[in-house]
Design goal:
This protein has about 290 residues and is of the alpha+beta class. Among the domains are: about 80-140; about 175-290, endopeptidase domain like (from Nostoc punctiforme) (endopeptidase fold (from Nostoc punctiforme)). Helix content is about 50%, strand content about 10%. The chain has five helices and eight strands. The protein has helices at about 15-45, 60-140, 175-185, 205-215, 225; strands at about 190-195, 200-205, 230-235, 245, 255-260, 265-270, 275-280, 285-290.
Length: about 290
């Protein structure tokens, strides 16, 4: 025996052909399976994945809810519109109220100014009446003239009295047109006072004077202011029947009447008294004009 016979050979043992063929077949099957799987995976990867979503069916309940939601939305919109209209109306009302307040204040200021002016005029008229009353009183006190006494020689002694008394109230009787005017105004005493009236059942102050002078063919202006300058200005101490008396200033008189003699006048005074006959002392006039 060889001295190397007991040593294991370092060379790989030879494999027989059948073993190799089996192993080759197994490997080929595995590779084929992998190829098929890879191809299938590639094909699956290339195709898009489609997912189908199924929408829920709109039932009657859902339709009712949708309608209710629409109604609620419409009601809310209507509410907001109504609120907007109310706000606009409130703003307009506030603006109008502000304008009305300004107008009311303006009118109040004008009324106050007018009242103050009227009060001033009345105060001036009262002062003028007081002055006229003083003038009349003075004239009455000084109108009586003293008589003169004379003695003559001869068969007798006589006394002659040169006396003239003129108290401002004793006047000669009216004649002619003046008498007709006096007679007319006295006949109207007791009739009513109505602003703007010129007879025959009612008069205002200037209406009575105008109508009285119309009886004798004299045309006078309609209002007191113009009648107070329609003739010649005369002194209150030298009045004659038929003269026009006025209260206030000449050209701005607020009342007129007719002097009827003996210190009396007839005039349409006011709604309370109507047409009356009164003494000059009842309401002393400011002045007088003579037309006849």
């Amino acid at each position: 025996m060889s001295h190397t016979a007991h040593i294991r050979s370092h060379r790989k043992p030879r494999r027989n052909a059948s073993s190799l063929a089996v192993r080759a077949g197994v490997a080929g099957g595995v590779l084929g399976t992998l190829a098929v799987a890879g191809a299938s995976g590639s094909a699956n990867a290339a195709e898009p994945v489609t997912q189908t979503l199924e929408l829920p069916t709109l039932t009657a309940d859902l339709a009712t809810q949708a309608a209710q939601t629409a109604d609620a939305t419409e009601q809310a919109a209507a509410h907001y519109q109504l609120q907007a209209e109310r706000d606009a109306a409130a703003a307009k009302a506030a603006k109008q109220a502000k304008a009305d307040l300004a107008e009311a204040r303006k009118k109040a200021a004008e009324a106050k100014k007018k009242a103050e002016e009227d009060a001033r005029k009345k105060a001036a008229a009262r002062a003028a009446r007081t002055a006229a009353r003083t003038t009349l009183a003075t004239a009455a006190d000084t109108a009586t003239l003293p008589g003169g006494t004379g003695s003559g020689t001869g068969t007798g002694t006589g006394t002659g009295t040169d006396a003239g008394s003129d108290t401002g109230t004793s006047t000669p009787p009216a004649t002619g047109s003046a008498a007709a005017i006096v007679s007319f105004v006295k006949a109207q005493v007791g009739k009513a006072y109505v602003s703007g009236a010129t007879g025959p059942s009612a008069y205002d102050c200037s209406g009575l004077v105008q109508t009285a002078f119309k009886q004798v063919g004299v045309s006078l202006p309609r209002v007191s202011q113009d009648q107070s300058t329609a003739g010649t200005q005369v002194s209150l101490s030298n009045l004659q029947p038929g003269d026009i008396l006025y209260w206030g200033g000449a050209g701005s008189a607020y009342h007129v009447a007719v002097y009827v003699g003996d210190g009396m006048f007839v005039g349409a005074q006011n709604p309370s008294t109507g047409v009356v006959e009164r003494p000059l002392s009842y309401d002393p006039p400011t002045g007088a004009v003579r037309v006849l």
